[in-house]
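User: Can you predict the 3D structure for this chain?
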Amino acid sequence: MSDSPSTVEIETAPNPEFAVILMHGLGADANDFVPLVPELRLADAPAVRFVFPNASEIPVTANNGYVMRAWYDILSFEGINRRVDEAGIEASVGRVRALIAEQNARGIASEHIFLAGFSQGGAMTYHAGLTHPETLAGLIVLSGYIPSKGLIDASISEANRATPVFAAHGSFDDVLDVRLGEDACDFAREQGCAVEWHTYPMAHTVCMEEVEALRAWFGARLADADADAAR
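Assistant: Here is the predicted structure, written as C-alpha cells:
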C-alpha cells in the first residue's frame, strides 16, 4: 500500500501564472491525463502548470477488496447510487488542500487554480472545490459525480458558490450513468455555480469533441482571469 503518492508536473511555458490540479479516475494513475495537455493547444495562452497527483493505493471494497489507486473507498454500487467512505473523501480533500497550498507557496494564487478530474477524480473535484475556503478559478469535471451531497452541505464554502464549472459526460456511460452527472450539475447550479454541461455519444471515456469544448471554456477562463489581474 502506498502512503506517499507522487505527482507529475507539466508547465506549458516558464513562470506559470495558473495551475490545474487534475485527479485521475479509480484504478488509473497520474500519467493517465498527461496527453490532454498538448491536445488543449495552449501555446498562445498564459503559462499553466498542470499538476497530476497519484491517489494512494487502497483496497476498494466494491471491487472485492482489490488494491488500486483510489481517492476514497467505494463500499458498494447500487444502481446509480454509491455508498462511499466519507472519512476517505475528507482525507483526500486534505491532500488537495495541501496541493493548492503548495501552488500558493510557489506564487500562484488560489483564484488562478483550477481543480479538475475524471470519474472518481471528478467526484473529488466537486467535493474539494465546493468546500474550499478560498475562491478558485474553476472546476473541470469529466464523467464525474457527487459522492456525498450531505458531506458537502456540511462544509460548503461561500467562496466557491459562484465558481464556474465545466462538466461533461458520456450518454452511453455504463460505469457512471449520465444521470449521476446531470444530478451533480443540478446540485452545483443550486449552490450558485455557473455550469457549462455537455453530453457526448460515448462510454466512460473522453472524446475529441469534449476536449475542444473544454479548450474553449478553459481559454475563456484564462483570458478573463488575466484581464482581471491586469485591472
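The CA atoms of residues 158 and 207 lie 33 Å apart. The chain has six helices and eleven strands.
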